[in-house]
Amino acid sequence: MKPCFLCKMPGHTTMTCPHRVATQYGVVPAPQRNTHNALEYVFQRQLRTRLPPIKPAYVIPDRVCCAVIRYHSRRVTCLEFHPTKNNILLSGDKKGQVGVWDFDKVHEKMVYTNIHTCIVNNMRFNPSNDGMVYAASSDGTISCTDMETGISSSLMNLNPDGWQGPSSWRMLYGMDVNSEKNVVLVADNFGFLYMVDMRSNNKSGEAVLIHKKGSKVVGLHCNPLHPELLLSCGNDHFARIWDMRQLKAGSSLGDLLHKRVVNCAYFSPLSGSKILTTSQDNRLRVWDCIFGNLDSPSREIVHSHDFNRHLTPFRAEWDPKDPSESLAVIGRYISENYNGAALHPIDFIDISTGQLVAEVMDPNITTISPVNKLHPRDDILATGSSRSLFIWKPKEKSEVVEQKDEGKIIICGSTEKKFKRKFGDGSDDSGGDDDGFKSKGKNFKLTKSRSKSAHCPRKVKR
Questions:
Q1: What DSSP state is assigned to residue 388?
Q2: What's the pLDDT tens digit per position in 64-74?
Q3: Tally: H helices and E strands in the chain
Q4: Quick one: which of 114, 202, 315, 338 has the fewest CB in 10 Å?
Q5: Closest C-alpha among 169, 213, 219, 220 to residue 192
Q6: Which is it for strands 409-412 and 453-456: parallel, antiparallel or unpaired?
Q7: Gap between the Cα atoms of 220 and 230, Å rounded
């Protein structure tokens, strides 16, 4: 009679859980609420008309076209695509490093080690200068880094006196950029929100308590169409909507209650009218209209992501290219048996019905993939799995790339000797130490391609 690990309900085991067979099991369509709310009337007349009534066919990136193995020295914590250069991917890790990778040329990559001293939790580009990127870290600082030179400056330091014990050490988690107000928004592990003016690069105003005092605020997101609306989420089991014009403690416009910690909360990318949250109770929650009744979600979708010890927390993210605002991507914690191999697939879910659209996996990726990011313009998925990065494309496109590129898989660090000895690699590059790439006790193999491995030592700019 213990509760099922997946759906948290008693009466069955995880293996026989009906939610494991069908993700849409138990998902109830949102009722049509009759209301005389003027805001909802305006929304239906002016904003909803921008969304197409018929869903277009989904294009799923389902094949790994290139990868860099052991790119970071610790696990990947966040990913961000360049806003104008389609082939540039930024990644942050647990040690505070920031990587810049050109995945079209594969071998062109850089890791900057001198930006932060511990976990990079979030990254955002400067909307007026796409060569500068902001990063929020658990060392309590916001950095502004030039991607070309790696020169970084600290915009705010919440721990100027250094370590004084865990009761006073402030860590920055949630972050977003509000281009209309020209501010960088960050939130810490004590429930406070801070603002930094992008023009002067100085702290603006006083800190505001937006969640329960002493709880982490792990996510911030500004509405894409209404920049004055801010969505936050944290460890106090709430996601909250705020009006930035009247931002003060206890003045939230809506409080979305969850049963456990909320890993992330996002407005929909085009209309900004929906909300998607990921909670540690193995639920994805969807609100179809932010101007309607927010007391209960429109849908709850059971999904396996209830684990974040020694893992980056799982986050369901929208597909920014989907005009119907119904496709989301998230990694899966529970492993599945694929031809005798225990793999952790990446799920594409239709959040309007709860149906599993696709589950993508690769026999070479035996580690869990909690960090996933869909490209804002191309049919590309970037995945951070342990210390490695993978780029997924649809099969038709990736097959064309395979014929052109020979060095698609880069083994970083000092893994080449074992790699060549085990798999007969013919590269002329000389390798480093005896350390080999391992993933859950299994060896990394190259299949379905004739690509050569390329030894690429870590490049560091100081």
A1: E
A2: 999 999 999 99
A3: 4, 35
A4: 202
A5: 213
A6: parallel
A7: 7
Q: 289: number of CA atoms within 13 Å, CB side? A: 17
Separation CA 120–CA 384 (nearest Å) = 14
Distance of CA 218 to the CA centre of its chain: 12
Q: Measured in Å, how far apart are the chain's first and last C-alpha atoms?
A: 57
Residue 105 is encoded by which pair of tokens?
């040329």
- Name all contacts of 246-250 with Cβ < 8 Å and 24+ positions apart: 247/193, 247/208, 247/210, 248/208, 249/208, 249/209, 249/210
> Which three-class secondary structure state does DSSP give residue 213?
coil
| Structural contact between residues 123 and 134, judged by C-beta atoms closer than 8 angstroms | yes
**In this structure, are residues 156 and 203 in contact, taking their beta carbons and an 8 Å threshold?**
yes
More confident position, 311 or 437: 311
3-state secondary structure of 7: coil
Measure the CA–CA gap between 360 and 374, rounded to whole angstroms.
13
Query: Tokens representing 383?
Result: 């995945």
Contacts of 3 (CB under 8 A, 6+ apart): 9, 10
Structure tokens that stand for 407 in this block: 């060095």
Which pTM was predicted?
0.84
Query: CB under 8 Å to 385, separation ≥6 — which residues?
Result: 76, 365, 367, 368, 369, 370, 371
User: Which residues, at least 6 apart from 414, have a Cβ–Cβ distance to it below 8 Å?
Assistant: 431, 432, 433, 434, 435
Classify residue 337 as exposed, middle or buried by CB count within 10 Å of its CB (0-12, 13-18, 19+).
exposed
pLDDT digits (tens, 9 = 90+) for 141-199: 999 999 888 899 999 999 998 888 888 999 999 999 999 999 999 999 999 999 999 98
DSSP letters along 215-230, please? Answer: S-EEEEEE-SS-TTEE
* Cα 201 from chain centroid (whole Å): 26
Spatial CA neighbour of 152 closest among 141, 160, 162? 141
223's tokens: 């509405």
Amino acid identity of 45? R
Strands 409-412 and 63-69: parallel
Q: Which amino acid is at 215?
A: S
